[in-house]
Amino acid sequence: MRFSGEFPLTLTIAELVQGLAAGQYSSAELVQDVLRRVEAQPGLNAFITVDRDGAEKAARAADAARASGQNAPLLGVPIAHKDIFCTAGVRTTCGSRMLADFISPYDATVVARLNAAGCVPVGKTNMDEFAMGSSNETSFFGPVRNPWDVQRVPGGSSGGSAAAVAARLVPAATGTDTGGSIRQPAALCGITGLKPSYGRVSRYGMIAFASSLDQAGPMAQTAEDCALLLAAMAGFDERDATALTAAVPDYHATLRSSLEGLRIGVVREHFGAGLDAAVGAAMQAALREYERLGAKLVDISLPNSGHALPCYYVLAPAEASSNLARYDGVRYGYRAAEYRDLEDMYKKTRSEGFGPEVKRRIMIGTYALSAGYYDAYYLKAQRLRRLIAQDFGQAFESCDVIAGPTAPSPAFAIGAKSDPVSMYLNDIYTIPVNLAGLPAISLPAGFVEGLPVGLQLIGRYLDEARLLNVAHKFQEATDWHRRAPAGF
Amino acid sequence: MNKEDIEKIAHLARLGMTGQERDTYAEDLSRILGLVSQMNAVATDGVEPMTHPDEAILRLRPDAVSLEADRDRLLALAPDSRDGLYLVPKVIE
Fold it and tell me: What is the pTM of this model?
């Protein structure tokens, strides 16, 4: 097939890598088509910044490298970065007025590694402000729309990345996940998204939200593509004090391993009240598919996971209130135009630069850490965190992976959840995983009234290879991940 | 949470707030703390606090300069700077 000017972006990264290597099309041609698609969809609001010049230049460089006999695993493949990753020379806003004009002097490690693997970055995707949100409505740059129904949210906080991949504007994008921010938008947009184990991917240059929970990961059409991307992203980085030194396995080599005898834990508590009945039915169908593939279902319990939400809404805001103290209008970012003195400058800068959800979380975190409340909130939450993590350890004694819904319902309407607590409830199945530091993947597993739903698979610490394998086998047997929304 | 609580926390967090905002935040934060109070249903006496998913002792590195800060480039990001210094409103008269 010769490139015809109308590029079939239903192709996966694995297929694009082959097409580029075989000379069926150049990276320059591919990237032109991606830019055309991105620029034709301003209504989705999936991008905050499109870097046309940089993308064209990087694509030409990739083609030149190939012509001179060089190769790299993802040479010439276009990718979009969540606007939380610092990119030298291209503004990094984190979805906030505070950083609306911020141009980082350096690249995040994730960006540098994907560049080294040959990727061509085309732009920065929209996101909830400072990654605080589950619907992309908290972005200073306006909400992202779900390509399956533009009146609905794409999920969040990596909503721009999810919408861009779902609408096939780009073959893949990066995301970050503190309480579900890769998996929940992946589920609501019908794509595949992996949150690796805490420490597997470097956080250097990834703007901090809650440092003991934040983790970067890939978002793409398939588990196979996530494997290719994770291979490029993962690994030790001396610039991240919590980056793991463990060797990165060959994720691709085990992708096709048989699931015969695999024990899948089904969490009793995840199928109770709060789960949309139709989503539950889709999950049951997915579990039956796994039984056909040779897996055995095991009933398990995570008795403390029901308390993960309150635990998280102490720990994440506490860490955020500390991390976001750096935005003071002195060294970089927004500064208020008028002020009386230094304290007034801090207060005006921060109240004008941050949006309501970010301020709510800074306030909660400040309160939880303040004198007289520390033990009752922060310490209590840390003790609970251990109980939640221990539940997983116990569960994994009788199963190899855990399966269940990623989110309790499909995408909801923009503006439907104005009460913060009802918004937080979107993440009840994803948050326990971050607290425990485990890897988890969301993959398309059916539709409810025309909207995609996601299956979440949770793995043992550092067992990304198995998660990718278990997800890939499902995608060999089903075609949910091949479905794309009409009109894009 | 009442208005006075909100005012105190906002000051600690160096966030300016109007009267109207104080009401909204008092309501929102009370609701969030209602959610948070569900933690009390779990007995955690004697449980060691978990600070981090990977509780291994942080790695050390040789005590050597590993990053040369490009002063001019970093200062160029500042809202206001002069002669290699960050400028802020006068603190001491």
Answer: 0.97
